Amino acid sequence: MRKNIKYLFTLITIFTLMAFQDSDILCNANDLKLKAKNILEPYKYDSSELTNIIYRNKETLKEVEVPMFIGEKYRIIFELEALPKEIEVQIYNKDKESKNRKLLFSSKELAADKKEFQFEISKVRHVFIDYVIPPAETGSYSGCAVFMVGYK
Length: 152
Fold this sequence. Notes:
Helices cover 24% and strands 41% of the residues. With 152 residues, it is an alpha+beta fold. The chain has a single domain, classed as Jelly Rolls (Sandwich).
């Protein structure tokens, strides 16, 4: 009986580790951040965030707030190569609940196959990054996006 429990526990552990290993291959945060950091120069690194993107049966929106200091000039780098399907990135001056928010940037204006891009901004307290996630063709799947912020 004791051998069976040990054997079962070992199998569960192996399968769990294999599941996490597959997602790390697709979404390697360190590699994505390293690529973004290379584009960031000559700006100094401030922060970065890995965002899990889940494609569902309908279009969804995921919003991330980025606080900033008014006196600085910022560069925001996006690395989207770990996404299985293209998304649109929008940057606004206010959150999605605000009525008078202004679109500052949209990746829709860029080439469709572009997986990394940058945006520069100054004189703001914070920006709101909206990921517009298109519907999945079949089922549900996921990927990740990285953005990195640097200041001058």
